[in-house]
Write a structure and sequence with these properties.
The chain contains five helices and six strands, in the order βββαββααααβ. The chain is α/β, with parallel strands linked by helices. The strands form two sheets. Strands 1-3-5-6 form a four-stranded mixed sheet, covered by helices on one side. It has a two-stranded parallel sheet with strand order 2-4. The longest helix has 21 residues. The protein is globular, with a radius of gyration of 16 Å. The model has no long low-confidence stretch (mean pLDDT 83).
Length: 147
Amino acid sequence: GQDSRVTASIAFEGKARRVDGERQNVSKPLIHLIGGYNRLELEGSQYRVNDTGVLYEVIINGATHTSFSDLIFVYKHFADAKWLQRHRYEVEPERIIQITRDYVAAFLDRVLYGKSSTLLQPVSYAARVDSPRTSGYPEVELQVTVR
Protein backbone atom coordinates (compact mmCIF):
# COMPACT_ATOMS: atom_id res chain seq x y z
CA GLY A 1 0.00 0.00 0.00
CA GLN A 2 2.88 2.47 0.56
CA ASP A 3 4.79 2.11 -2.73
CA SER A 4 4.02 5.14 -4.91
CA ARG A 5 4.86 3.16 -8.06
CA VAL A 6 1.81 0.94 -7.51
CA THR A 7 -1.46 2.36 -8.81
CA ALA A 8 -3.73 -0.62 -8.17
CA SER A 9 -3.65 -4.33 -7.35
CA ILE A 10 -5.31 -7.47 -8.69
CA ALA A 11 -5.66 -10.65 -6.62
CA PHE A 12 -6.80 -13.99 -7.99
CA GLU A 13 -8.17 -16.12 -5.14
CA GLY A 14 -5.90 -16.63 -2.16
CA LYS A 15 -5.59 -14.91 1.17
CA ALA A 16 -3.96 -11.62 2.04
CA ARG A 17 -1.84 -12.81 4.95
CA ARG A 18 -0.03 -10.55 7.39
CA VAL A 19 2.45 -11.76 9.96
CA ASP A 20 0.53 -10.06 12.78
CA GLY A 21 -2.81 -11.60 11.72
CA GLU A 22 -4.44 -8.21 11.11
CA ARG A 23 -6.44 -7.36 8.00
CA GLN A 24 -4.50 -6.13 4.99
CA ASN A 25 -4.79 -2.36 4.49
CA VAL A 26 -6.21 -1.24 1.15
CA SER A 27 -5.17 2.31 0.33
CA LYS A 28 -5.38 2.01 -3.46
CA PRO A 29 -7.88 0.29 -5.75
CA LEU A 30 -7.87 -3.50 -5.42
CA ILE A 31 -9.90 -6.11 -7.27
CA HIS A 32 -10.06 -9.59 -5.77
CA LEU A 33 -11.55 -12.36 -7.91
CA ILE A 34 -12.95 -15.15 -5.74
CA GLY A 35 -14.31 -18.57 -6.70
CA GLY A 36 -17.82 -19.04 -5.34
CA TYR A 37 -16.85 -22.29 -3.61
CA ASN A 38 -14.32 -20.35 -1.52
CA ARG A 39 -16.35 -17.25 -0.76
CA LEU A 40 -16.93 -18.02 2.92
CA GLU A 41 -13.19 -18.29 3.46
CA LEU A 42 -12.17 -15.26 1.39
CA GLU A 43 -14.97 -12.73 1.01
CA GLY A 44 -15.12 -9.61 3.14
CA SER A 45 -12.84 -10.66 5.95
CA GLN A 46 -9.25 -9.98 5.00
CA TYR A 47 -9.07 -6.32 4.05
CA ARG A 48 -9.44 -2.94 5.80
CA VAL A 49 -10.21 -0.19 3.31
CA ASN A 50 -8.60 3.18 4.05
CA ASP A 51 -9.77 6.64 2.93
CA THR A 52 -7.99 6.40 -0.43
CA GLY A 53 -8.76 2.74 -1.15
CA VAL A 54 -11.58 0.88 -2.83
CA LEU A 55 -12.07 -2.88 -2.84
CA TYR A 56 -13.92 -4.77 -5.56
CA GLU A 57 -14.65 -8.37 -4.62
CA VAL A 58 -15.82 -10.31 -7.67
CA ILE A 59 -17.37 -13.62 -6.61
CA ILE A 60 -17.78 -16.02 -9.52
CA ASN A 61 -20.27 -18.69 -8.50
CA GLY A 62 -19.29 -22.11 -9.82
CA ALA A 63 -15.58 -21.25 -9.80
CA THR A 64 -12.84 -22.76 -7.61
CA HIS A 65 -9.19 -22.04 -6.77
CA THR A 66 -7.97 -23.50 -10.06
CA SER A 67 -10.47 -21.52 -12.14
CA PHE A 68 -8.12 -18.54 -12.46
CA SER A 69 -5.29 -20.34 -14.23
CA ASP A 70 -4.72 -22.75 -17.09
CA LEU A 71 -5.10 -25.64 -14.61
CA ILE A 72 -8.84 -25.49 -15.12
CA PHE A 73 -8.32 -26.66 -18.71
CA VAL A 74 -5.71 -29.25 -17.82
CA TYR A 75 -7.80 -30.82 -15.07
CA LYS A 76 -10.97 -30.92 -17.14
CA HIS A 77 -9.31 -32.79 -19.97
CA PHE A 78 -6.62 -34.87 -18.24
CA ALA A 79 -7.63 -35.55 -14.63
CA ASP A 80 -8.56 -39.07 -13.59
CA ALA A 81 -12.17 -40.12 -13.05
CA LYS A 82 -11.96 -39.87 -9.24
CA TRP A 83 -10.82 -36.24 -9.43
CA LEU A 84 -13.57 -35.38 -11.91
CA GLN A 85 -16.20 -36.95 -9.61
CA ARG A 86 -15.07 -34.72 -6.72
CA HIS A 87 -14.92 -31.51 -8.79
CA ARG A 88 -17.89 -30.25 -10.73
CA TYR A 89 -17.64 -27.97 -13.70
CA GLU A 90 -20.68 -25.76 -13.21
CA VAL A 91 -19.19 -23.06 -15.42
CA GLU A 92 -17.13 -23.92 -18.47
CA PRO A 93 -13.43 -22.97 -18.21
CA GLU A 94 -13.67 -20.70 -21.26
CA ARG A 95 -16.48 -18.71 -19.64
CA ILE A 96 -14.60 -18.23 -16.36
CA ILE A 97 -11.54 -17.02 -18.25
CA GLN A 98 -13.75 -14.60 -20.24
CA ILE A 99 -15.38 -13.30 -17.05
CA THR A 100 -11.93 -12.85 -15.49
CA ARG A 101 -10.64 -10.98 -18.54
CA ASP A 102 -13.67 -8.70 -18.69
CA TYR A 103 -13.58 -7.76 -14.99
CA VAL A 104 -9.83 -7.17 -14.96
CA ALA A 105 -10.11 -5.02 -18.12
CA ALA A 106 -13.01 -3.01 -16.62
CA PHE A 107 -11.01 -2.50 -13.42
CA LEU A 108 -7.87 -1.35 -15.24
CA ASP A 109 -9.93 0.91 -17.52
CA ARG A 110 -11.47 2.55 -14.44
CA VAL A 111 -8.24 2.91 -12.48
CA LEU A 112 -5.90 3.89 -15.31
CA TYR A 113 -8.22 5.78 -17.67
CA GLY A 114 -11.24 6.81 -15.59
CA LYS A 115 -13.69 4.84 -17.78
CA SER A 116 -16.84 3.55 -16.13
CA SER A 117 -18.24 0.06 -16.65
CA THR A 118 -21.52 -1.55 -15.66
CA LEU A 119 -19.48 -4.57 -14.55
CA LEU A 120 -18.11 -2.57 -11.60
CA GLN A 121 -21.43 -1.12 -10.48
CA PRO A 122 -23.08 -3.04 -7.66
CA VAL A 123 -26.69 -4.11 -8.13
CA SER A 124 -29.00 -3.83 -5.13
CA TYR A 125 -30.99 -6.81 -3.91
CA ALA A 126 -34.23 -5.06 -4.82
CA ALA A 127 -32.97 -4.39 -8.34
CA ARG A 128 -32.07 -8.07 -8.73
CA VAL A 129 -35.58 -9.13 -7.71
CA ASP A 130 -37.54 -6.45 -9.55
CA SER A 131 -35.42 -6.18 -12.67
CA PRO A 132 -32.77 -8.83 -13.20
CA ARG A 133 -29.48 -7.66 -14.71
CA THR A 134 -29.35 -7.42 -18.46
CA SER A 135 -25.63 -6.71 -18.60
CA GLY A 136 -22.74 -8.50 -16.99
CA TYR A 137 -22.68 -12.13 -15.96
CA PRO A 138 -25.36 -13.86 -13.88
CA GLU A 139 -22.67 -16.04 -12.22
CA VAL A 140 -21.01 -12.99 -10.70
CA GLU A 141 -21.74 -11.16 -7.48
CA LEU A 142 -19.93 -7.89 -6.88
CA GLN A 143 -19.16 -6.40 -3.48
CA VAL A 144 -17.66 -2.89 -3.44
CA THR A 145 -16.17 -1.54 -0.22
CA VAL A 146 -15.14 2.09 0.27
CA ARG A 147 -14.57 4.02 3.44
